[in-house]
Write a structure and sequence with these properties.
869 residues, alpha+beta, eight-stranded antiparallel beta sheet, three-stranded antiparallel beta sheet, 30 helices
Length: 869
């Protein structure tokens, strides 16, 4: 059935010593996206299976860096599994002895036998080609085929740890012997730029486009029949979390207030939307993070009354003493089935999840929820979780400060900026007998082995986390129930860590409520307090998947209200942590190891200074004195650049109703920048963040703005940060603005400016910051003369060096090539140095050949010899 695979003896990998034995691995590779272009037969089989048209690839998705973790449960899984599979060390090294393996696979519970053959061949100098044949056979006629043959030929770059190309041929054979042939190619997309600041900007742009799409979809929701309340509430909740001003949605809330409370989903979402009206969103770019920040405010009396009304309905709609919900409910009947009349005999995890999240929103809004209800929810989740599971691990998991598993001692020791990794054998670490146990759709009964799946396990985790924290906050969480809840949470996390997939709902495949699944994952991770799930950076991978899936035309996801709302909620990381104390309300920078304001405070541990300052706006009187001490310690220990960015957090404290807080803010602001106007402090805080970002991004286009700050009346604290960035960017054009600083009255100021000037000019010039005033005047005059004579040359050299550096940055490379082409031969020597970097080598080599007219290999030594060095 399958054609033989042609293999040239000269290309057998085993014969070539240039490729290391363990060279083929995904370990350490950057996140990547691959797309599948498939050509189906003219007449596809009737039961043809759709193949996933793309895959997001990350090292966390592989065992030992080679074998994809995701189980094979469909032909789509089969194709992607073998396209990404890398050979193991046990591969035979001689031609004619290919690896043969027989595996039992499960396709929707049906047994399938698989025979596999893989061979490696050398291609080019630094590429590996892998050829594979896979044959599937089954006696199960319900699958629609009895045999499937798959041929693959892949090219992998070991140094870049990247699949470069893949061609495939799939032959589908029906029971009647008829064959259908598919051909296709898998191509690598441009590398995913996950640098935190740039990735955050891309996510924010996607949120903006999705927000516009959802506003249009929401306008249609009120006119549609069925679940108008729930669909409108879901849209409003996502829009508020995406930055739409609450006043813009007033007509929607007026509409919702007139609707009947009759469905669990709808009522729960209404409560969540009402609470969201009082949560302020700050975009990532405005506070220096990588996701938006959310801060709870005071809930207006009118909204609180509506929340109380809807909460009373939800409490009446649950199953008393059993802690679960179904689709509807009634104060006399309790939970009801779809028709709203028949008493439900069992609930479901999805409706229950939304009800629990709504009760959490109610509690955060100041509405009482009886502790007994939280205990029911806690108990129900313990009973309903799978009773058996395979051994699991949470190695590599990183917890946030508000997590029940956060280890303050490890954090104080500097284990991580805002989180601590799971370690066995310690309180808060994983149990030695940890089993992977998830949740299924059904509630209030043991779910049974094998019935759990991704969205429901995530729903179980979020609900359990909320119930545990609510009981702890009410001082009603017994040590026994706390231990039980933590064990159940860890078992659920282990299940999800083992099965996590950013492209499909584990256990339900590619078409099984994908966007709801990602939304549930976000709820679970942020409520339990998980920044990294095992080896997987869950938010980053899910965000990449959503960025790829967003509609390029209208900014929606699948052009539906529900999927667009769920996608926006995930991208925003829109869940506020379960713990209701403001102290724990922050999260670490997604994709970064170190938060910009992370500090280690003696006897406290690792904190974020911005969170500490924000907490002063809502901390109780009882805690205020201690929190003020902590805020003082944060500002004392912070570096000057961090102190400057914290000015934005001091600004609202100047208008605080408590005199002690106001005094603290005024004193610290005047100490730092001799200003105490809230608007000025906000502007200065933003300017500090800008200057820091310009330095980190090596953004040479902002040098004129830096010069303007030097020439203006910037406070000393800001001027010091500008000086640092000017030096880091080697901004020689700032020299005229720096020279007046050499005539400052304070020797420390003169020293600071001279350190930057001498670093920029790099000449045998003299200046003594402590010398007599007449001598200093003469030395500054000599420096001005030197700049007048040499300034243009120095600036030209700096511009060439910057352009060469930008060759390594894809977003700037084209402009850099244009600049260097105009410069001509003066750029040759700097371009030789650019050959030493893999990121700029190919572009630098092409320019060297173009500008010199020489055709030499990309070897720096050869080019230096050609240039006479």
């Amino acid at each position: 059935m399958l054609r033989p695979l042609p293999l040239a003896a000269a290309l057998v990998l085993a014969c070539s010593p240039t490729l290391a034995k363990d060279a083929l691995t995904w370990e350490g590779a950057a996140p990547a996206v691959y797309t599948l272009e498939l050509t189906p037969p003219a007449t596809p089989p009737q039961r043809a299976e759709a193949l996933q048209d793309h895959a997001v690839v990350h090292p966390s998705g592989f065992l030992d860096g080679r074998v994809p973790r995701a189980p094979i449960a469909s032909l789509s899984d089969l194709v992607w599994h073998h396209a990404l599979l890398l050979p193991s060390d046990e591969l035979p090294r001689k031609k004619g002895k290919p690896l043969e393996a027989t595996r039992s696979l499960s396709f929707s519970g049906s047994a399938v036998e698989s025979e596999e053959r893989h061979q490696l061949v050398r291609v080019g100098r630094k590429k590996a080609a892998i050829q594979s044949r896979i044959m599937l056979r089954t006696q199960v006629t319900t699958l629609g085929w009895t045999q499937v043959g798959l041929e693959l030929e892949r090219v992998f770059d070991p140094q870049a740890q990247r699949l470069e190309a893949c061609s495939l041929r799939l032959v589908w054979v029906q029971a009647d012997g008829q064959q259908f042939v598919y051909t296709g190619t898998i191509a690598a997309q441009p590398p995913v730029d996950t640098e935190p600041t740039r990735f955050a900007a891309r996510v924010e742009e996607a949120i903006g486009r999705g927000r516009a799409a959802l506003l249009k979809l929401a306008a249609q929701a009120r006119a549609q029949q069925g679940h108008a309340l729930g669909r409108t509430a879901l849209a409003c909740f996502a829009l508020l979390r995406s930055g739409v001003p609450p006043a813009d949605l007033d007509p929607y809330f007026a509409f919702m207030a007139q609707q009947k409370l009759d469905h669990t989903y709808s009522v729960a979402l209404y409560v969540m939307a009402l609470e969201a009206r009082s949560v302020a969103r700050t975009p990532a770019s405005a506070h220096g993070g990588t996701v938006a920040r959310f801060d709870r405010g005071q809930v207006p009396a009118r909204d609180k009354a509506e929340i109380e009304r809807a909460t009373a309905w939800l409490l009446a709609a649950r199953k008393p003493q059993e802690g679960w919900w179904s689709y509807g409910g009634h104060s006399d009947l309790g939970p009801t089935a779809h028709d709203g009349k028949t008493p439900a005999t069992a609930g479901d995890r999805s409706n229950s999840q939304f009800a629990v999240l709504a009760l959490h929103s109610a509690l955060a809004s100041g509405v009482d929820v009886p502790p007994a209800v939280w205990q029911e929810i806690l108990d129900e989740h313990h009973v309903a979780q799978e009773t058996k599971g395979d051994p699991g691990s949470l190695t590599g998991t990183v917890y946030l400060r508000h997590s029940a598993f956060f280890d303050p001692a490890a954090a104080e020791a500097g284990a991580d900026a805002e989180a601590t990794r799971a370690r066995g054998g310690k309180e808060g670490g994983e149990s030695a007998a940890l089993l992977r146990r998830g949740w299924a759709y059904g509630t209030h009964r043991a779910a049974g082995n094998g019935s759990a799946y991704g969205s429901m396990t995530s729903a179980g985790l979020s609900s359990l986390a909320v119930a545990r924290e609510a009981l702890a906050d009410a001082k009603r969480l017994s040590p026994e129930h706390d231990r039980q809840a933590k064990a159940d949470l860890q078992s659920g996390l282990a299940w999800l860590a083992h099965r996590f997939d950013p492209s499909q709902n584990p256990g339900r495949g590619h078409s099984g409520w994908f966007f709801y699944y990602l939304y549930s994952v976000e709820k679970a991770m942020d409520l339990v307090g998980v920044e990294r799930l095992g080896p997987a950076p869950w938010w980053q991978l899910g965000a990449i998947e959503l960025l790829y899936r967003q509609d390029a035309t209208d900014g929606s996801w699948t052009k539906t209200l529900e999927d667009t709302a769920f996608a926006l909620l995930f991208l925003n990381r829109a869940t506020l942590p379960a713990k209701l104390e403001i102290e724990a309300a922050g999260r670490v920078l997604t994709g970064a190891e170190q938060a910009w304001d992370a500090l280690t405070i003696p006897d406290v541990g690792r904190v974020r200074a911005s969170e500490v300052l924000r907490s002063l706006t809502s901390v109780s009187k009882r805690e205020l004195r201690e929190r003020l001490k902590l805020a003082e310690a944060c500002l004392d220990q912070a570096r000057p650049a961090v102190q400057g960015r914290l000015l934005a957090e001091l600004a609202p404290l100047l208008e605080h109703s408590d005199k002690a807080v106001k005094r603290f803010a005024k004193k610290r602001a005047r100490d730092l920048v001799k200003r105490d106007d809230p608007a000025e402090l906000r502007a200065l805080g933003a300017r500090f963040a800008d200057v820091q970002a310009w330095g980190e991004d090596r953004d040479y286009a902002q040098i004129p703005a830096l010069v303007a700050l030097l020439e203006g009346d910037a406070p000393d604290l800001l001027r010091a940060e500008v000086l640092r960035v000017v030096g880091a960017l080697r901004a020689v054009e700032a020299t005229p603005a720096l020279l007046p600083g050499l005539e400052a009255s304070e020797a420390d100021d003169r020293r600071a400016h001279w350190q930057i000037v001498v670093g920029l000019l790099r000449a045998g010039l003299e200046f003594d910051p402590e010398g007599p005033s007449r001598q200093r005047e003469e030395q500054v005059a000599a420096l001005r003369t030197y700049w007048d004579l040499e300034g243009k040359r120095l600036l030209r050299e700096a511009q060439i060096q910057r352009a060469v550096e930008d060759l390594a940055r894809p977003e700037r490379a084209a402009a850099a090539e244009e600049t260097l082409t105009v410069v001509g031969e003066q750029a040759l020597r700097p371009l030789v140095d650019a050959l030493r970097s893999e990121a700029s080598r190919s572009r630098a080599h092409a320019l060297l050949k173009k500008l010199s007219g020489k055709d030499l290999p990309p070897d720096p030594a050869a080019w230096l010899h050609a240039l006479g060095e």
